[in-house]
Write a structure and sequence with these properties.
By secondary structure, the chain is mainly α. The chain contains 9 helices and no strands.
Length: 190
């Protein structure tokens, strides 16, 4: 997914500027490391305008995750189709994302790690994201065969592992090679 976003121009609407600024900063620098004052300054709005649109930082975080979910899922489905629309498409799709200079892992995993224990709503949004991602993966599998739901769940888990390895170890090539081996081992490489 293209992650190298710029902060929106002052020509955008205030709510959109705030949300896009938060998206860029939260994903790049982390949620806790990004204060509201920084989001306000970089989105070029007043505190009154900010709080009119987002009564709290938690509201902004939830809006960020909802926005990220919509963007990422649209990109994911388009990239999978562009790469053939089968389980094999998962590897080049991930490669495309990992190669982006702004890649910083999964925003949902990162958010749960940062805030999950104190923010059940963030966990719920992230769980829904992962379930929808698994459903998309399920759609790549043949409708016949053994346990397509379980295979989709295994692929989703392996995909998350590849994301974490690519981020943590900064080893996207190794992560993709391991992920490819899992696809072969599950017998969905045809």
């Amino acid at each position: 997914m293209p992650n190298s976003e710029t902060i929106p121009s002052s020509q955008s609407g205030a709510r959109e500027r705030i949300l896009l600024t938060a998206h860029a900063l939260f994903y790049r620098d982390g949620i806790r490391a990004t204060g509201i004052d920084r989001v306000i300054a970089e989105s070029e709005v007043s505190k009154v305008t900010f709080y009119r649109h987002f009564p709290s930082k938690n509201d902004l975080i939830q809006a960020f995750l909802e926005y990220r979910h919509q963007r990422w899922m649209a990109w994911f489905q388009t990239a999978l189709a562009r790469h053939g629309g089968t389980a094999q498409a998962l590897v080049p799709t991930l490669a495309e994302w990992f190669e982006d200079e702004g890649f910083r892992g999964c925003a949902f995993i990162n958010s749960v790690v940062e805030l999950g224990g104190s923010q059940p709503a963030i966990v719920a949004i992230s769980q829904r994201h992962k379930l929808e991602m698994t459903e998309v993966i399920r759609g790549l599998l043949p409708s016949t065969g053994d346990q397509p739901t379980q295979i989709a769940q295994a692929l989703a888990l392996a995909l998350d592992g590849a994301i974490v390895e690519a981020q943590l170890l900064q080893a996207p090539v190794a992560a993709l090679a391991s992920f490819r081996r899992i696809i072969v081992a599950l017998g969905v490489d045809k």
